């Protein structure tokens, strides 16, 4: 049965040039091994989740697999490094032979201080969702200041929907 009391309205985060000021609410490794970093934007309470997916070895050459692993390490280390002092960032060392092992190693460094304000460089992906860019610099804090550079690859406006020929014509009654 459906009940409107069970519906929670979520405010969707909108990427801003210069970055979105956020606080981390949680960092979790899910049962399927994916890693979620959940943020809330200051002032709007908009929620943003960045999820790291498994880079499956069987779907890549060895060279691609090694590159994917190193990109994952660099991406996550850059992001969680914003919650640590320079001396503590030097202690963030992880190793593993696959995504699950690396994820478990990173979880040992899950930020404990939720009071750190992090500025995130968010952009739109091809589906119109806010996301972090593939390559740093995309996170900054007082503990780890960074400047954001924007390029033509950084989409700051969502893609426009392309009309679908199969959609209902404007003259017809709406279908629900």
Per-chain topology:
Layout: E1 20-29, E2 35-41, E3 47-52, H1 62-80, H2 86-89, H3 99-107, E4 117-120, E5 123-124, E6 130-131, E7 139-140
Antiparallel strand pairs: 1-2, 1-4, 2-3, 4-7, 5-6
Features:
176 residues, alpha+beta, five-stranded antiparallel β-sheet, two-stranded antiparallel sheet, 3 helices, 18% helix, globular
Could you explain the architecture of this structure?
It is built from three helices and seven strands, in the order βββαααββββ. The chain is an alpha+beta fold and 176 residues long. The protein has one domain. A five-stranded antiparallel beta sheet has the order 3-2-1-4-7. A two-stranded antiparallel sheet has the order 5-6. It is globular and about 45 Å long. The two termini are 18 Å apart. About 3% of the residues have low confidence.
Taking the sheet with the most strands, its summary is: 5 strands, antiparallel
> Order of strands across the biggest sheet?
3-2-1-4-7
Mean pLDDT: 88
Low-confidence runs of at least 5 consecutive residues: 167-171
As an assembly, this protein is single chain
Figure out the total of helices: 3
Describe the structure concisely.
With 176 residues, the protein is an alpha+beta fold. It is 18% helix and 19% strand. The protein contains 3 helices and 7 strands, in the order βββαααββββ.
């Amino acid at each position: 049965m459906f009940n409107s009391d069970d519906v929670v309205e979520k405010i969707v985060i909108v990427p801003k040039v210069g970055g979105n000021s956020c606080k981390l609410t949680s960092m979790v490794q899910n049962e399927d091994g994916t890693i979620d970093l959940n943020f809330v934007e200051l002032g709007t309470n908009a929620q943003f989740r960045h999820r790291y997916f498994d880079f499956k070895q069987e779907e890549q050459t060895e060279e691609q697999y090694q590159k994917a692993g190193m990109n994952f390490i660099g991406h996550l280390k850059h992001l969680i490094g914003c919650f640590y002092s320079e001396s503590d960032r030097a202690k963030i060392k992880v190793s593993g032979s696959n995504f699950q092992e690396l994820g478990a190693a990173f979880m040992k460094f899950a930020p404990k201080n939720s009071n750190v304000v992090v500025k995130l460089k968010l952009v739109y992906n091809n589906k119109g969702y806010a996301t972090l860019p593939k390559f740093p610099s995309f996170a900054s804090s007082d503990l780890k200041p960074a400047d954001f550079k924007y390029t033509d690859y950084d989409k700051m406006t969502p893609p426009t929907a392309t009309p679908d020929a199969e959609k209902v014509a404007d003259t017809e009654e709406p279908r629900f």
